[in-house]
């Protein structure tokens, strides 16, 4: 009677004939999985359906016309996630007390690392440079004992650098061309202090997640080789073709296998 499918690229909710059982119209709400905030909603009646872009991590809530909760469908990484999401989760499960670092976490509402961190199967440093996004990140993860929160820009050398932010800081990077290609709102910049990636990776971590808008390749190549984690997820869609090929060659020469079955991020694994 109520069918919810977490397909990619859309979540689809289908309602058959339910008026003999439930008080219509039903309200279908898309809820952020981490912050539990309503993102979007619509009304559904008999033999109707709705879709919403499956571009983050969402729960689905169905209520009747009297606001009684009929169904709450919680996101599950193994049923609803992509292969790259499942890979990081399983990797953490296979290790004894794994530790990781996620750089460019935004507000913490999405990312391949989210499920593993929420389920507390890994310790992690969550790092975000935008002050606005970091405040949301704190709201979402401040009560997690397995999380260390860091509000800082991470660079190859730890020097001051120009940092670009669009809108409310949702898009941000040290690469102005990347921000300009994504952002329709005014772009602001400031000279920002930073922390060196090799200061952040002060020991051998098990995994590294990068979402830093075109800066991923430079950061990975700047890491001391003996400190490179064996499991690395990096965003490739904002890298130039030249930088992407250079990074792939660098990692493969170090013994990494690269999984390219994702249109945004690649997974590099070294056994």
Structural description of this entry:
By secondary structure, the protein is an alpha/beta fold. It has two domains: 2-75, Immunoglobulin-like (Sandwich), CATH 2.60.40; 79-269, Rossmann fold (3-Layer(aba) Sandwich). It has eight helices and 19 strands. Strands 10-9-8-16-17-19-18 form a seven-stranded mixed sheet. A four-stranded antiparallel sheet has the order 4-3-6-7, with no helix packed on it. β1 and β2 form a beta hairpin. α7 (216-222) runs parallel beside α8. The N and C termini lie far apart (46 Å). The model has no long low-confidence stretch (mean pLDDT 95).
Structural class: alpha/beta
Q: Which segments are poorly predicted (pLDDT under 50) over 5 or more consecutive residues?
A: none
User: Going across the major beta sheet, what is the strand order?
Assistant: 10-9-8-16-17-19-18
| Beta strand count | 19
Determine the number of helices (DSSP H or I, runs of at least 4 residues).
Answer: 8
Domain count: the total is 2
What is the percent of helical residues? 10-25%
CATH topology of the largest domain: Rossmann fold
Name the helix and strand elements from N-terminus to C-terminus, one letter apiece.
EEEEEEEHHEHEHEEEEHEEHEHEHEE
Mean pLDDT: 95
Distance between termini? Answer: 46 Å
**CATH homologous superfamily caption of the largest domain:** Vaccinia Virus protein VP39
Strand share of the residues? 35-45%
